Amino acid sequence: MNRLKPCVLLLIFFFSCTKTPKNIIPEDQMIAVLTDVHLANALASNYADLDTIKQRTSTYLHAVYRRYHIDSAKFNRSLKYYSENPTLLNEMYEQVEKDLKKKEDSIIKLEEIERKRIADAERRKAQLIRDSLIRVRNKGKKDTVISLKPEVPAIWPFKEYNYSVKKGSVKVKSIKKK
C-alpha cells in the first residue's frame, strides 16, 4: 500500500501538468489568435471616428474568431487561463512579437518590391517616350547616325561606335579607337 501512494501522486502530478483544459485554446493556436487580434486592433485603430473604431474592431475580431473556430467567451477564458501563468504568457507574447515582426518585415519587403516595380515601369515609359520623340524627329530621314559610348572596362580598345540605322537594320559606320 505504501508503494502505491507515491505512484498515484506521480500520476496525478503528471496529468495535471501536461494538458491544458478542454475549453481552453491550445498554446500554439493561442499565439496565432493573439497575433491576429493585435493586427485586427491595429487595423481598426486607423480610423479617426471613435464609433467607427469600435464597429471595425468588433467586425475584425469576429473575423478572427471565425477563422480559428472560437468565440469571444472561449478567447477570454483562454486569456484568463494563460494570465494566471505569467511566465507562460510572457513566452507566448515573445512569440507574438516575433510573428508580428516577421509580418512587418514581409510587408516592408513587398512595399520595396512594389516601389522598384513602379520605378521600372516609369523608367520604361520615359524610355518609350524618348524613343517615340526620336522617331518623330527623324521621320522622313533616310538613316540616322547614333553615337554610343560603351559601358565597358578601361581595357576595351574602342572609344566610340557610330551606327547607321535604316528601318530595323543596323550597320556599323565607324569605330574610333582610343
- Summing up helix and strand content along with how strands pair, one would put the structural category as alpha+beta
Average predicted local confidence, pLDDT: 77
Q: How many beta-strand runs?
A: 3
Low-confidence stretches: 7-11
Spatial arrangement of strands, main beta sheet: 1-2-3
Your description of this structure?
- By secondary structure, this protein is α+β, with helices and mostly antiparallel strands.
- The protein is 65% helix and 13% strand.
- It is built from five helices and three strands.
- The protein has helices spanning 4-18, 27-44, 50-67, 72-83, 86-137, and strands at residues 144-148, 158-166, 169-177.
- It has a three-stranded antiparallel β-sheet with strand order 1-2-3, with no helix packed on it.
- Helix 2 packs antiparallel against helix 3 and helix 2 (27-44) packs across helix 5 (86-137).
- The longest helix is centred in the middle third of the chain and has 52 residues, at 86-137.
- The chain is elongated, with a radius of gyration of 34 Å.
- Residues 7-11 have low confidence and may be disordered.
SSE topology:
Elements: H1 4-18, H2 27-44, H3 50-67, H4 72-83, H5 86-137, E1 144-148, E2 158-166, E3 169-177
Antiparallel strand pairs: 1-2, 2-3
Q: What descriptors fit this protein?
A:
single chain, 178 residues, alpha+beta, three-stranded antiparallel β-sheet, 5 helices, 65% helix
Nutshell version of this structure?
The protein has 178 residues and is of the alpha+beta class. It is built from five helices and three strands. The longest helix has 52 residues.
